[in-house]
Give the backbone structure.
Amino acid sequence: MSVDRSDAAVRSADRRVLKRTRVRRNAKLIVPRSSPVICCTVENLTNAGACLQLATTFGVPETFDLTFEHGRTRRWCRVIWRTGDQLGVAFEAGAQAKAG
């Protein structure tokens, strides 16, 4: 019986402590210094962080507020990783980005 190595590699590479829930929700990044709001999609999330899909991550700062659920939820985020069109963020407890 053969093992699909790509499948095994994906399983071993995903070492998250918390299982992420796929949500696909529209959201907005609110960045400091009165910059325009950036629209994105929350691909998946946990209580500790999220994966965000954007048109481009160019120019997105390392910290920002993320708002979703029509403004009912607002979380301060710190970028952990980024690609050209995705951000992995950690939610920072008890903090909010300062408007500049």
Summary: Residues 1-13 have pLDDT under 50 and may be disordered. The domain at 18-91 is CATH 2.40.10.220 (Thrombin, subunit H).
